[in-house]
Amino acid sequence: MKYLPLFIDLKFKPILIVGGGSVAARKIKLFCAVGAIVYVVANKLCDDLKKIYNKNKIRWLSKKFNVNQLNNIFLVVVATNNNNLNKKIYKEANNRFIFVNVVDDLKKCSFIFPSIIDRSPLLVSISSSGMAPMLVRLLKEKLETILPKSLSSIINIAGKFRDKVKKYFIKFDDRKRFWESFFDSIFSSYVSCNNFELAYKVLNNHLKNKNKLSGEIVLVGAGPGDSGLLTLRALQAIQRADIVLYDYLVSKQVLNLIRKDAKLICVGKRYGYHFYSQKKINNLLISYAKKGKCVIRLKGGDPFIFGRGGEELLYAYKYKIPFQVIPGITSGIAAPTYAGIPLTHRDYSHGVIFINGYNYKHCIDSLKFKYSSFTLVIYMCSINIEYIYKQLILNGCLKNTKVAVISSGTHDEQYVKTGILSELNILIKKSFSPRILIIGKVVELREKLSWFKISKNSFNNKNYILNLL
């Protein structure tokens, strides 16, 4: 280990910055953020530094450097393109045992700046010892997605309760167990949703009921299949899961992102095959939550779009189980997008209607609109396809209306067939489940707007290192 990572309190410490450009400005903002007294030596200040200077946050000593400016200085940063000046300042500062950093010159640095992930008071610093800054940037991007912004509030609240926890739990091991279970409880979920009233309620209940853990149900939309379309909050949720009840339509890519020690139960339904009835699924959710588990109900697409998510949460509400919902990208939007079919377009479609093909008979009578002005998206379209076709014709849809059948939208094996309404039965037979049916003029645009190809290697390989991690 070449460098020892340290966290230094620089409040009211004198810092000297030599240079007045954009690089110097970035360093100065860091020092100002921690309350340091910043002195600047520069021929001129860039626009950003002028703004900081005008707010009296920095002190502009002079335009030229002299060694006396190092007197009583705690730390120096040199950000100039004058190599001779940089060398001189490094030598003088080093002789005085002053920490010095010459930007982009590792040999002239007694300290270096790490990449910082700020969730104050939590700070995460990453460094490659100056050897691979691009890799550090990629790692930072990855960690930024894993660490929720709400960590700041979570830690601040926990800090306020430390003394109270000590009174409830005298033994260190008991306190340790409390905090371990507490940080993994629904408290964190409530804070992330800015529901501080319930968060404090959970915290106090957690203290009063020492041996009773609070479980929760999180209804999560897994998106249409491509794991890159999973939301950040959904990723954070499945990585803290104890139990995951998932549907068949959740892709393997998404399942691979779930916390490795979580228990996975497939409760998916297929036409004619319901091993888990809805009642059994509801009971499983309640049973695990009552045991203090974080139960993730993982559904393909969006849980509130033809996903029975509302029914399951009403069951949780009935039993007073805390819950939250994390939306997902529904396949009715994602699949046509990946197929190059915009659902609305000023010249083609003024609106879009989503319909469940399985229960199509119950909503067909409400479709008293001009098909030429709207786009119709039908989920689960293959079961009643003959009836759907007949009713569309009876309700005024022309036989030459453009249609698209999309199978496994957003997946590597995505398959798209386009044609006209009179060919619908043939198009369905040539495709495979799961399917989305798009009806409307906008289908014509696929010829020009198709962009997604089956081979996505160019997308995946650029993040090879991150994928390994």
TrEMBL record:
Gene3D superfamilies membership: Cobalt-precorrin-4 Transmethylase, Domain 1, Methyltransferase, Cobalt-precorrin-4 Transmethylase, Domain 2, NAD(P)-binding Rossmann-like Domain, Sirohaem synthase, dimerisation domain, Siroheme synthase, domain 2
Sirohaem synthase dimerisation domain span: 153-205
Listed GO MF terms: NAD binding; precorrin-2 dehydrogenase activity; sirohydrochlorin ferrochelatase activity; uroporphyrin-III C-methyltransferase activity
Secreted found in the keyword field: no
Pfam families found in the cross-reference section: CysG_dimeriser (PF10414), NAD_binding_7 (PF13241), TP_methylase (PF00590)
Domain of life where this protein originates: Bacteria
Keywords tagged on the record: Cobalamin biosynthesis, Lyase, Methyltransferase, Multifunctional enzyme, NAD, Oxidoreductase, Porphyrin biosynthesis, S-adenosyl-L-methionine, Transferase
Catalytic activity: precorrin-2 + NAD(+) = sirohydrochlorin + NADH + 2 H(+)
Protein's GO biological process: cobalamin biosynthetic process; methylation; siroheme biosynthetic process
Domain Tetrapyrrole methylase: 217-424
EC number of this enzyme: 1.3.1.76, 2.1.1.107, 4.99.1.4
Pathway given in the UniProt record: Cofactor biosynthesis; adenosylcobalamin biosynthesis; precorrin-2 from uroporphyrinogen III: step 1/1; Porphyrin-containing compound metabolism; siroheme biosynthesis; sirohydrochlorin from precorrin-2: step 1/1; Porphyrin-containing compound metabolism; siroheme biosynthesis; precorrin-2 from uroporphyrinogen III: step 1/1
Keyword Oxidoreductase tagged: yes
Record InterPro entries: 4pyrrol_Mease (IPR000878), 4pyrrol_Methylase_sf (IPR035996), 4pyrrole_Mease_sub1 (IPR014777), 4pyrrole_Mease_sub2 (IPR014776), CobA/CysG_C (IPR006366), NAD(P)-bd_dom_sf (IPR036291), Siro_Cobalamin_biosynth (IPR050161), Sirohaem_synt_dimer_dom_sf (IPR037115)
Active-site residues annotated for this sequence: D247, K269
Family statement drawn from the similarity comment of this UniProt entry: Belongs to the precorrin methyltransferase family.
PANTHER family documented for this protein: S-ADENOSYL-L-METHIONINE-DEPENDENT UROPORPHYRINOGEN III METHYLTRANSFERASE, CHLOROPLASTIC, SIROHEME SYNTHASE-RELATED
Protein name: Siroheme synthase CysG
